Amino acid sequence: xxxxxxxxxxxxxxxxxxxxxxxxxxxxxxxxxxxxxxxxxxxxxxxxxxxxxxxxxxxxxxxxxxxxxxxxxxxxxxxxxxxxxxxxxxxxxxxxxxxxxxxxxxxxxx
Length: 110
Prior knowledge:
The protein is of the alpha+beta class. Helices cover 10% and strands 13% of the residues. The protein has one helix spanning 98-108, and strands at residues 35-37, 53-55, 62-63, 84-86, 92-94. Strands 1-2-3 form a three-stranded antiparallel β-sheet, with no helix packed on it. It starts with 34 loop residues before the first strand and ends with a helix.
């Protein structure tokens, strides 16, 4: 899945919502589900300098808080970022971009 243009930044998220990561929770190695490991500190199966992120329990791939895979892990690439848009401060639509979403949003509010 190509990275959306609006997510080509340090956070891999929309600039106006950089504290929200929208990612496909499927490890790019063999399709297991990475689990959140947000606590910063040494933990089992994680490096001593762990700063938070995701761990795939199947084969040990690790991803940072932006879904980027660590080097020398089984996963060959970062977690996928799907197209998404915010329709309000509290509503998120996954699978649509702002351009196509405006038309979709107008149709759903009729």
